[in-house]
């Protein structure tokens, strides 16, 4: 996997700027007067010939661009800057990295494009479970169980990735309602199920794709799976390498920012609920793999997406990696992951982070009021650094 590692960045940017420079003045959006770069001349192949800009962005979504279904006012103005309304005159590439998910990348990008008013392509979008595309080969033909989301939406996403035998906890309820007697399937839930005999179907892995909707049912079935070597209803066994069910969580967020006034419990809270119950039953925590921000594997995956996006816009691979700026609202995920990846990080005040509760747990490169201010600050910083 190719990664974005900074080479001789400053000298390269200076050369790049000199090559483009034309005596000209303009205004940053906040009216700060700075020396600027020549607007890139547009030709019929402009998008294929654009020079690489000195910086690229990775944005979190919830609490940065959106809150619930509402677009934050600064989001559209920030994206307009990246589409060329900035002192460099260049389109500045960006990707979105979210710990959200539950639907396909294509469907989410269609929705985001409509909400934000800019074309967001799947090639610039990484959601919590996108990284699972890289492990499909390991499980493609084995039965797996997916958790989270409504009805069988997550099953469809998993099948779209290439997993062939995908089951849900609602399938388990349709097979045997006594598994969890405190829930009765609704007609719509039943219509989403697949018939399968779980007593003859060893599940090799459990993937928590998205936030579970029925924690009690899902904790029960997860406990059944991991204690019985993947066969629901079979006798409980000590966990060993031979009978271990792989457990994968895609989003570690304990909290996330939705439309409600206070942050809501996220998938990380479900993981802790499961582990607390499992610990009470066995005296141990169950081993698991964690994807999503701030995991290293997710940031490595995002770096590859960024390099591909740069090539898509300019028609060639970047010789020198530009500075990456992560803009997020959650110090524990956005800022921690960006800092570990050696990116610059900007923490905004429109989401989870509450300055009234003290300094953030992970120190960002900069704190901004909102995403527009974050973008303006980063562009100004790179231009000043380039001289
Ligand atoms: Mg967020």
User: Which stretches of 5+ consecutive residues score pLDDT under 50?
Assistant: 1-48
Tell me the strand percentage band: 5-15%
Following the backbone from N to C, one meets helices and strands in this order, namely HEEHEEEHEHEHEHEHHEHEEEHEHEHEEH
| Rg calculated over all Cα atoms | 23 Å
CA(first)-CA(last) distance: 32 Å
CATH class of the largest domain: Alpha Beta
Largest sheet, strands/sense/barrel: 6 strands, parallel
What's the rounded overall pLDDT mean?
87
Classification by helices and strands: alpha/beta
Counting structural domains, the number is 2
CATH architectural label of the largest domain:
3-Layer(aba) Sandwich
* CATH superfamily label of the largest domain: HAD superfamily/HAD-like
Strand order of the largest sheet: 7-6-3-15-16-17
Bound molecules: magnesium ion
Percent of residues in helices: 25-40%
Q: What general form does the structure show?
A: elongated
- Topology, number of strands: 17
Helix count, per DSSP? 13
CATH topology of the largest domain: Rossmann fold
InterPro entries: CDP-alcohol_PTase-I, HAD-like_sf, HAD-SF_hydro_IIA, HAD-SF_hydro_IIA_CECR5, HAD_sf
Keywords: Hydrolase
GO molecular function, one term: hydrolase activity
Protein name: HAD hydrolase
What would the keywords be for this entry?
Rossmann fold; six-stranded parallel beta sheet; five-stranded parallel beta sheet; 13 helices; 35% helix; binds magnesium ion; hydrolase activity; HAD hydrolase
């Amino acid at each position: 996997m190719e990664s974005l590692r900074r080479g001789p960045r400053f000298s390269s940017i200076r050369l790049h700027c000199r090559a483009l420079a034309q005596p000209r003045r303009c205004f940053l959006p906040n009216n700060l007067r700075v020396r600027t770069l020549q607007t890139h001349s547009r030709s019929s192949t402009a998008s294929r010939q654009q020079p690489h800009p000195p910086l690229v962005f990775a944005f979190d979504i919830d609490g940065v661009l959106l809150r619930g279904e509402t677009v934050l006012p600064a989001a559209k103005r920030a994206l307009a800057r990246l589409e060329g309304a900035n002192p460099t005159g260049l389109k500045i590439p960006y990707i979105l990295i979210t710990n959200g998910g539950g639907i396909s990348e294509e469907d989410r990008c269609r929705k985001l494009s409509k909400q934000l008013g800019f074309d967001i392509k799947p090639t610039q979008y990484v959601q919590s479970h996108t990284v699972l595309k890289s492990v499909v080969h390991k499980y493609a033909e084995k039965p797996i169980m997916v958790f989270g989301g409504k009805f069988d939406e997550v099953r469809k996403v998993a099948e779209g990735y290439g997993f062939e035998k995908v089951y849900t906890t609602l399938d388990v309820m349709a097979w045997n309602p006594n598994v969890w007697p405190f829930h009765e399937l609704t007609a719509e839930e039943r219509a989403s199920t697949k018939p399968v005999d779980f007593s003859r179907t060893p599940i090799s892995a459990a993937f928590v794709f998205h936030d579970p909707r029925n924690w009690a049912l899902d904790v029960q079935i997860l406990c059944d799976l991991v204690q019985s070597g993947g066969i629901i209803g079979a006798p409980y066994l000590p966990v060993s390498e031979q009978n271990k069910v792989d457990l994968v969580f895609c989003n570690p967020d304990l909290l996330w920012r939705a439309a409600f006034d206070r942050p809501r419990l996220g998938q990380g809270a479900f993981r802790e609920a499961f582990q607390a119950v499992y610990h009470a039953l066995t005296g141990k925590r169950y081993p698991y793999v964690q994807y999503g921000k701030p995991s290293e594997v997710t940031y490595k995956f995002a770096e590859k997406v960024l390099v591909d996006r740069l090539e898509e816009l300019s028609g060639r691979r970047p010789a020198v990696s530009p500075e990456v700026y992560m803009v997020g609202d959650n110090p524990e995920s956005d800022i921690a992951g960006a800092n570990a990846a050696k990116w610059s990080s900007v923490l905004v005040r429109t989401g989870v982070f509450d300055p009234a509760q003290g300094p953030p747990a992970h120190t960002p490169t900069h704190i901004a009021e909102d995403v527009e201010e974050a973008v303006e600050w980063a562009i100004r910083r790179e231009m000043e650094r380039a001289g």
